[in-house]
Amino acid sequence: MIARVVAAVVLVWLLGFAWFALLQPGPAPDTAVTDAIVVVTGGPGRVQRGLDLLAAGRARRLLVSGADRRVRPADLAAVNHVSERLVAERVDLGHEAVDTRSNAEETAGWLARHRFRTLRLVTTDWHMARARFELHRVIGPGVTILPDAVRSEPGFTMLFKEYHKYLLRRIAAPLGW
Predict the structure, then answer these.
(1) Which terminus of the chain has fewer CB atoms gathered within 10 Å of its CB, N or C?
(2) pLDDT class of 4 with cuts at 50, 70, 90
C-alpha cells in the first residue's frame, strides 16, 4: 500500500514537472491595454518589454518592482532607449522588494495607492507561475492580472529549481508561511 502511494506521488510530481517545463507561458498580445504594467526585475528583457508597452500606450503607468537603489530614472531611460520624460512622468521604481514574495507585496501597495484594477505582469516565462501566484495571493480577486511572459530558454536546472520553489509556495502559503 505504501509503495502505491509513493508511486502515485512520484507520478503526480513528474507529470506536474512535465506540464511546468513544456507549457511555459508566452507574451500577452501587444494590443492589450491595462491600467498598469508591473515589471518584476531579475531577468533580461523584462524592463525593456514593460517600457516598450508603456511607450506604445498600453498602460497609464509602470512599476519596476525590485529595482536597484542605485538606478536613476535617467539611467533607466538611457539603457532602455526610451525618453527620459516617459520614465520621469510614468514610471515608478520600487526599491523595497528583494524576492518574488516582496515583489508581490510592493506591487499590491502600489496598485492600491493608484487604484488600478487591471495590470499586465511582465516577468520571464519560467518565473510567471510563481510571480502570478504570489501577486494574486496578496491582491485578491479585485484586480485582473494579464500575464505577459518574456520568452527565454531556461535549462533543466533552472526549470527544476523554479518548479520546486513554486510547489513550496503553493504548499506554504496556505499554512501562513
Answers:
(1) N
(2) very high
